């Protein structure tokens, strides 16, 4: 049966500045896309990045729309339509979406994870930990969304408020008690998480990324911090004490403050005892456990998961046992081995700091026992400033470097490679090849490798496509490296 709600009940969730018309109407659907308006719709006009919903209000005059939420009332008012003026329609949309779906986030214990790197791994592992603890749980992430065990394809790190609340509602209907979600800086800035009730928030780290959108690092920090600023007093806020802005995130939060660290005194302290390419022996608050993850950056992620698990009230001993049962997320430091003794690591690292972390991890583990060959690109129509930095940092830590295409989108791949090459000095250029065809770049890396060497294929991780001139073509680094390995004589 189709859902119907009273307009006045939906408006009870927001602050209304002015209302023109009756609020005693039945609403059949809530939309923020004018093309989806049907008879009885409540249309919320949101000012987006590429379009302003207010521009489409005149076209809705004979659409059957019941009510319109907007920041500016139109000059021509239709007597059949109720107009609701608010200060910020994006925030209003979040609260209305939650109300439409019966506030599902209040029926779950929802944990949000924000930061530049580690969001997907941390959120996914909290979801997996909940299930290992015997609970039904949900996940909202870059790789895939899950309603308990049902996979739901993911198109954005954080969906729009209507899709987000519908997914949370489905989780409640499926009997989920917990949910974990990535909170991107875009989502926080665009108020896509407005109206959600969080049981906890986690900050992983902050390095340069998304400056094409945020323009400055300060704006980027502010977007991340805004998530913690609105956490309720009943929630926990868990931050990485080793990150230079870790404590900044908690400055204005009402939530209970907690910290984790590999270097300092904190509520949750981690230590790497022994590291290998296939796993790590770690100690969390002095309790040792063997995990199937490699690298300091992964230990930070796991420590955040451990801390969140304890703060959610789960049994400490069982949490430690389950830490050893967690497995790496697809495309995050995912290892493949050839019959000739070469290891390829496929990783989503697409920022300078992430590339540094992965390469340092590989270096720490293999020492002087093999060469490191790195295949890396940079996305088109995104932050150009990080391109030379990515290349320079990769060259510093690699014996051979191959620059290649990532998702060029609408840019010329040759121009992107040129921007990356600008970060290399004369000596680094001597060990660098530029091959725009990503498949050929991976094949070349395998040809250059000998037994004991490690190839890092960075930037795309779990992605199974390349976006070229607005068209997505199937391409999966994991499939390609396995095909090349299999074809070796």
What does this structure look like?
With 489 residues, the chain is α/β, with parallel strands linked by helices. It has 15 helices and 26 strands. Helix 2 runs parallel beside helix 4 (161-173) and helix 8 packs antiparallel against helix 9 (316-323). 49% of the residues are buried. The model has no long low-confidence stretch (mean pLDDT 93).
Query: What percentage of amino acids are in beta strands?
Result: 15-25%
> Which structural class do you get from the secondary structure elements?
alpha/beta
Distance between the termini: 61 Å
Number of helices: 15
Helix content: 25-40%
Biggest β-sheet, characterized?
11 strands, mixed
Spatial order of the strands in the main sheet? 11-10-9-12-8-13-14-15-16-17-18
**Low-pLDDT residue intervals, each spanning 5 or more residues:** none
Tally of extended strands?
Answer: 26
Shape: globular
Rounded to an integer in angstroms, the radius of gyration calculated over CA atoms is: 24 Å
> What average pLDDT do the residues reach?
93
Secondary-structure map with pairings?
Layout: E1 5-6, H1 7-11, E2 18-20, E3 26-27, E4 29-31, E5 41-44, E6 67-70, E7 82-85, H2 89-100, E8 109-114, H3 119-132, E9 137-140, E10 145-147, E11 150-152, H4 161-173, E12 178-182, H5 185-189, E13 200-203, H6 211-214, H7 217-229, E14 236-240, E15 256-261, E16 268-276, E17 279-284, E18 287-291, H8 296-311, H9 316-323, E19 334-337, E20 343-347, H10 352-366, E21 372-376, H11 386-396, E22 400-403, H12 413-421, H13 426-430, E23 432-434, H14 438-448, E24 454-458, E25 465-468, E26 471-474, H15 477-487
Parallel strand pairs: 4-5, 5-6, 6-7, 8-12, 8-13, 9-12, 13-14, 14-15, 15-16, 20-24, 21-22, 21-24, 22-23
Antiparallel strand pairs: 1-3, 2-7, 9-10, 10-11, 16-17, 17-18, 19-20, 25-26
